[in-house]
Design the sequence.
């Protein structure tokens, strides 16, 4: 079974790890021209330094206007402004490209990751779904992931472009005066240290993952749900829960405040160190400008001033990008963790379906994950190809579990199940292909009517004629014909308008789904007629033999009258098969079946 | 009922589109915020506004620094420049710290307003009659409001930041005015034009989402089919994953395409914006150079103009985005306003007020006359039920699944009014009773009783919350509910945490163990009336019998109604009520009913045979 290690809440992924992962995903999910586009977009990060350079030039000319206005100076100013406009245009084009590339790439990565995740979830062993922790995590990742991925992509792009900008601006400062460049750089060192100290990662993780937060949320949700509202109202303890919730909220708030204070304290320290050194650099440059010996002009001041501004802005976005990445790293980890769950192995799926798919259960014992009660105990039964089997028994006697095991949704703890003399795990894929199902809680899918039938056989392309035939056999054709758009009617409310079917009509569609898999050797019907009206039900049973043909039919039913149709009846009681035989045999036996039958017969005759 | 709700939803949607109603909603939201905490709102808004003025002052100081340098070339007063640069650096530090303010606000205010709103919400939900939750749309709306009611904080925080940004922009204009009135005019024209265009871009996004939402919902639906537990079975057995995944993929690609198309559309506006910005820049810098040429400003003034045009550009974005950020949450506020202001029809239900109740007939606990009930008009669950439960009686309510047993219990609890007929509690109709009175008399364990992810102590004490710290009473209740053995086996005993939702070492209980906890809950209180719905359905037959015997033994003359689809326990009861398809078909003692040899007798014989050779009630009573 699932080990607890798989569900640990994890430490998240480091920033570097996230960048590397995003990079990998980029190459897996995107075409090379999209990546190229992104790379071009990143070049835009070089523009700020070009701008700063032009600023310097502009102000150096401007200074000369005051000192010595001349034609050359004016031309200089105009040419600088022209260059500047040109650069603005370039920035504008690249900006649009970058936004486009970012959007495209993040959508691609998002779709790629989600698709992979859906494929995985659809194939992981079904028993995971019964393990609340795994299921919760699965829900958590699949709900949160779509919102987070674009965040990861944008932050990663942001971090890379911030570094390019900082590098190029730094280089520009270097051309001015290496000592000043060095000074500014030195000012950034404490900022980096503080950034490490304040541990943004921890801060965000504490925000997102604190168990208190989940607990607070859990308690609050109790106020929004009917079952808990009912109980706390009747039991008169809503006040207790309200107080508990308020206490948790306040504790959480104090917890947050503590982090926030720390965060802002360190932030302030790094700002002080950063700007103090920039101030010093400005002072040095001022002194140089004021020194008549030196060639430095006001442009140099503007340049350093601009460098300071740009660096400040870049640092700010770097901070927030890195924080965002720290927060999302965890989702990435959960995601990759999820991909490692065991999948079902659909062996022998492509093999040809055997003529005789006899089913045997040998000493099968089964209990659901995390429970200690055996729902099936020592089940031994052989079902020959073509036999019509009815399974009867109370609720909870193990009927549906028996079917679930036969479908390979769960694995028995003891004993073995074989199909056509092969152990089930060896031929799981083939078994699924050779079996058609109507589950008790069959899906009512928001698709068109035709698609609702079509999904009964996804192994091959189905012509429309075949869908109509299946609908006719399942007695669904007539009501479909009465609908406005017939087989193209969309069921549900996801598209305009709202069409819904009655329980009986849905059941007929579900049966059509089973019928359309003509190549099936086994047909499993769980409470197939529960929602049908008496007339349709009677019709179904009349045609039962013809409908199932030479297939093995396994039918679970509460209505014992229907079991007369079966070649053999299996009576389940508390996880065991307590009686088996034809209706007559069992009636003659005068055992459990007889009692059930008579009890029901009385209901119906009285 | 659901028809009405649907209509309400449509009218509501229509209303939402009107500006007037938006204003009404905003007013409501601000009133909530004002009531919750006005001091903080004012404080942060003032701080925001002051902070927004820092950049304005910063520009002024920059101008002075530049002028100081240029004037003093060669004749430098180093002290003067040192002082000014120091002021400049301090302002920078201040400004960058101010940038953090909106974040602080969002965290601190969020906590404050969330707590208050969630509290208001809980009070509001407490008013809603439970039967309203049968309407799925309504229940979904309530749940949705529950998870979004803390968003008031975003509206308040966004507004505060918006006001700050507004003040900051005004400051920039003032600065422009002091430099040259032409600058002010150009600035204002640019500002208004860009604000309108930027607003348009945001509007496009907004419109896009109202269309894309539908596709998005569809996409989520298909993904949900794959990740869902219920559908998971069919997905595997019928190999549907490829089918639904391809649906999902094509929707995903469609959405991506739509998104890129939106980009192209808003790029058109962006291009115009960029052109305007470029023109504006050239105009303003040309003006600057001209002013400098004419000696109307000094070099510092030119630097100021240069910086000013950048900042105006930024403030357009801040204002537009803050405004739309706030507006984005208005629809949630509209929904909340609607729920918070709902008035409910409580005809036939016990009231929430506090008043003295004097029972009219204390000896007759329940009296039903021709009661008919259904959750929806098309369906009748209970038909023409008449019965009486006297004080001190033990009543067994039996019948098949779906016979209406649980529904009858809900009516007895006053959770639903009957459609026809009348129900009296101690001789009084329910609308003359209070919830307080009713529920201080009745202890209930529902069939689907809530399994709280709290400690065992809390889970049991919910039967009577006053006993939460009384270990003796709780353990005695656990003993009666047969839960004491496994509680003792736990290291932390009563304080063991149940469930792993947020407690990694929480104890995961099986269905049967949960049921024992649930029944223990009933044993904590000694309320006059005890109602237990299927208290042993998940136990094996021996434990089941034992459970019923324990219940019977701890009644001590109290009134009890026990519900089960298994009949074995019914002989313990003074009176048996048999329901079939919503009708009362038999009533009497076990002996009477067996003698009458009708449904009850048949059911009993049929079930009795199954338990042949097993422990019987008598065995257990003897063993005791």
Sequence:
């Amino acid at each position: 079974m699932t080990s607890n290690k798989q569900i640990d809440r994890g430490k998240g992924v480091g920033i570097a790890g996230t960048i590397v992962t995003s990079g990998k995903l980029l190459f897996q999910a995107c075409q090379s021209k999209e990546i190229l586009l992104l790379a071009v977009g990143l070049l835009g990060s070089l523009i700020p330094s070009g701008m700063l350079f032009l600023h310097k030039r502009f102000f150096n000319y401007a200074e000369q206007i005051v000192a010595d206005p001349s034609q050359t100076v004016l031309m200089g100013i105009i040419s600088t402004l022209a260059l500047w406009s040109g650069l603005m245009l370039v920035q504008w084009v690249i900006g649009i490209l970058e936004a486009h590339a970012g959007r495209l790439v993040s959508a691609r990565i998002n779709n790629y990751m989600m698709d992979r995740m859906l494929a995985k979830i659809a194939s992981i062993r079904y028993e995971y779904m019964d393990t609340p922790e795994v299921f919760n995590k699965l829900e958590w990742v699949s709900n949160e992931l779509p919102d987070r991925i674009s965040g990861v992509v944008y932050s990663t792009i942001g971090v890379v472009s911030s570094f390019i900008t900082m590098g190029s601006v730094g280089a520009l400062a270097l051309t001015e005066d290496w000592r000043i460049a060095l000074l500014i750089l030195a000012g950034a060192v404490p900022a980096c240290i503080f950034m490490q100290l304040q541990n943004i990662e921890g801060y965000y993780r504490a925000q997102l993952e604190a168990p208190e937060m989940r607990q607070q949320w859990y308690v609050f949700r109790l106020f929004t749900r009917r079952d808990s509202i009912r109980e706390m109202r009747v039991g008169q303890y809503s006040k207790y829960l309200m107080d508990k919730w308020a206490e948790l909220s306040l504790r959480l708030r104090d917890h947050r405040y503590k982090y926030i204070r720390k965060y802002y304290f360190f932030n302030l320290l790094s700002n002080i160190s950063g700007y103090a050194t920039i101030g010093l650099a400005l002072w040095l440059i001022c002194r140089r400008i004021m020194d008549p010996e030196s060639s430095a002009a006001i442009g140099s001041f503007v340049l350093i001033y601009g460098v300071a501004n740009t660096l400040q802005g870049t640092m700010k976005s770097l901070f927030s990008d890195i924080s965002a990445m720290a927060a999302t790293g965890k989702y990435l980890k959960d995601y990759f963790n999820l991909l490692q769950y065991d999948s079902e192995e659909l062996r022998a799926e492509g093999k040809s379906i055997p003529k005789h798919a006899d089913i045997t259960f040998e000493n099968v014992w089964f209990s659901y994950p995390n429970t200690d009660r055996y729902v099936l105990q020592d089940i031994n039964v052989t079902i020959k190809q073509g036999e019509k089997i009815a399974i009867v028994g109370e609720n909870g006697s193990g009927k549906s579990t028996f079917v679930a095991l036969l479908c390979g949704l769960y694995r028995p703890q003891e004993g073995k199940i074989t199909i056509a003399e092969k152990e089930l795990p060896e031929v799981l894929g083939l078994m699924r292909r050779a079996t058609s199902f109507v589950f008790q809680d069959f899906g009512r899918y928001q698709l068109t009517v035709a698609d609702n039938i079509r999904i009964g056989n996804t192994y091959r392309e189905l012509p429309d004629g075949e869908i109509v035939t299946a609908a006719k056999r399942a007695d669904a054709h007539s009501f479909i014909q009465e609908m406005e758009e017939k087989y193209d009617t969309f069921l549900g409310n996801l598209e305009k308008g709202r069409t819904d079917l009655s329980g009986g009509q849905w059941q007929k569609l579900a049966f059509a789904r089973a019928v359309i898999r003509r190549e099936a050797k086994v047909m499993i019907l769980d409470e197939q007629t529960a929602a049908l009206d008496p007339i349709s039900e009677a019709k179904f049973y009349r045609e039962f033999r013809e409908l199932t043909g030479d297939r093995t039919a396994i039918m679970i039913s509460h209505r014992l009258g229907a079991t007369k149709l079966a070649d053999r009846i299996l009576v389940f009681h508390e996880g065991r098969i307590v009686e088996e035989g034809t209706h007559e045999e069992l009636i003659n036996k005068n055992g459990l079946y007889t009692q059930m039958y008579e009890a029901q017969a009385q209901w119906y005759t009285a | 009922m659901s028809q009405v709700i649907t209509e309400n939803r449509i009218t509501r949607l229509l209303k939402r589109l009107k500006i007037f109603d938006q204003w009404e909603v905003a007013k409501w939201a601000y009133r909530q915020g004002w009531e919750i905490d006005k001091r903080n709102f004012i404080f942060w808004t003032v701080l925001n506004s002051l902070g927004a003025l820092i950049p304005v002052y910063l520009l002024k100081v920059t101008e002075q620094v530049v002028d100081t340098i240029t004037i003093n070339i060669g004749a430098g007063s180093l002290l003067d420049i040192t002082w000014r640069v120091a002021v400049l650096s301090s302002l920078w530090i201040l400004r960058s710290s101010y940038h953090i303010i909106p974040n602080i606000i969002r965290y601190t205010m969020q906590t404050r307003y969330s707590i208050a709103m969630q509290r208001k919400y809980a009070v509001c939900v407490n008013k809603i009659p439970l039967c309203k939750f049968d309407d799925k749309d309504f229940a979904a709306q309530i749940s949705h409001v529950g998870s979004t009611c803390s968003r008031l904080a975003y509206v308040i925080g966004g507004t505060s930041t918006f006001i700050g940004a507004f003040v900051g922009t005004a400051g920039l204009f003032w600065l422009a005015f002091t430099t040259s009135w032409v600058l002010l005019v150009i600035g204002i024209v640019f500002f208004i034009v860009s604000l309108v265009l930027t607003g348009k871009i945001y509007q496009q996004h907004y419109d896009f989402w109202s269309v894309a939402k539908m596709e998005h919902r569809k996409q989520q639906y298909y993904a949900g089919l794959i990740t869902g537990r219920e559908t998971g079975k069919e997905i595997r057995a019928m190999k549907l994953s490829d089918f639904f995944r391809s649906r999902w993929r094509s929707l995903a690609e469609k959405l991506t395409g739509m998104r890129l198309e939106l980009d192209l559309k808003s790029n058109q506006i962006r291009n115009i914006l960029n052109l305007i910005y470029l023109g504006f820049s050239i105009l303003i810098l040309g003006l600057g150079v001209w002013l400098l040429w004419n000696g109307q400003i000094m070099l510092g003034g030119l630097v100021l103009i240069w910086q000013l045009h950048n900042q105006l550009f930024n403030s357009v974005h801040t204002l537009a985005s803050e405004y739309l950020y706030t507006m984005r949450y208005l629809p949630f506020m509209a929904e909340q306003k609607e729920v918070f202001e709902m008035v409910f029809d409580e005809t036939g239900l016990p009231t929430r007020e506090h008043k003295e109740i004097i029972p009219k007939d204390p000896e007759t606990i329940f009296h039903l006359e021709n009661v008919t009930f259904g959750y929806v008009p098309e369906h009748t669950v209970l038909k023409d039920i008449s019965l009486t439960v006297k004080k001190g009686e033990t009543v067994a309510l039996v019948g098949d699944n779906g016979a209406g047993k649980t529904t009858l219990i809900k009516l007895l609890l006053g959770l639903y009014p009957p459609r026809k007929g009348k129900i009296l509690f101690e001789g009084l109709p329910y609308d003359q009773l209070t919830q307080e009175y009713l529920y201080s008399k009745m202890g209930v364990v529902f069939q689907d009783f809530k399994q709280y992810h709290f400690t065992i102590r809390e889970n049991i004490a919910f039967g009577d919350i006053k006993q939460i710290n009384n270990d003796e009473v709780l353990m005695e209740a656990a003993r009666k509910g047969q839960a004491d053995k496994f509680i003792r086996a736990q290291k932390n005993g009563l304080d063991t945490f149940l469930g792993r939702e947020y407690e990694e070492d929480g104890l995961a209980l099986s269905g049967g163990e949960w049921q024992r906890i649930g029944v223990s809950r009933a044993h904590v209180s000694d309320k006059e009336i005890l109602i237990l719905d299927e208290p042993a359905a998940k136990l094996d037959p021996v434990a089941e019998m034992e459970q019923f015997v324990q219940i019977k033994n701890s009644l001590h003359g109290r009134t009890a109604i026990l519900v089960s689809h298994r009949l074995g326990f019914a002989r313990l009861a003074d009176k048996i009520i048999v329901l079939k398809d919503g009708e009362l078909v038999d009533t009497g003692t076990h002996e009477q009913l067996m003698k009458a040899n009708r449904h009850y007798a048949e059911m009993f014989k049929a079930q009795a045979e199954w338990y042949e050779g097993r422990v019987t009630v008598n065995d257990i009573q003897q063993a005791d």
Chain B has a mean pLDDT of 81.
